[in-house]
What does this fold into?
Amino acid sequence: MPTTPVTTADSAQADAQETILLELVDEQGRTIGTAEKLAAHQAPGQLHRAFSVFLFDEQGRLLIQRRALSKYHSPGVWSNTCCGHPYPGEAPFAAAARRTFEELGVSPSLMGEAGTVRYNHPDPASGLVEQEFNHLFVGLVQATPAPDPEEIAEYVFVSAEELEKRRAQDEFSTWFVTVLDAVRPAVRELTGAQSGW
It folds into this structure.
């Protein structure tokens, strides 16, 4: 597994302007409707279902990615392994596995549910708002990622200590710390108490 960032070609193309619907939910995570993806993220934001994936290698290092510069939301910032939104009616677990493969070209091993977290994070750079009921997943990755350059500019595996150094010097997504803190108990169970997570 690489220990330094692996760069893919940054895509100059903007995201396709296809209509993508998100599942709107109430404060308990119950489905109450749908909304177009961009509309759901425009201020003040509509609460919708999302997922975040944290995958680790055999050394207990977290796979993080830098989002492609062509993405309309939070381009060029670092974030967790994979995140996104289930299609309306799609199980969060299925969506998490699907998007991990689509973005990184790998299928997670032993991926399990790690709870949910609800947050409201405005993104000052874009003016968009992450108003999400987020399903968390942790697992292992055993294959070498082959990222889609339209989704991911770089990836790297980091230890807990290396991540803290990166957070001091690199820009991360507005939701990253929230989802990382929420998933830590499941991460420690997966990687062991001595891993530093």
In short: The domain at 20-191 is CATH 3.90.79.10 (Nucleoside Triphosphate Pyrophosphohydrolase). The beta strands are 6-7, 21-25, 31-36, 48-56, 62-67, 78-79, 82-84, 109-122, 129-140, 152-158.
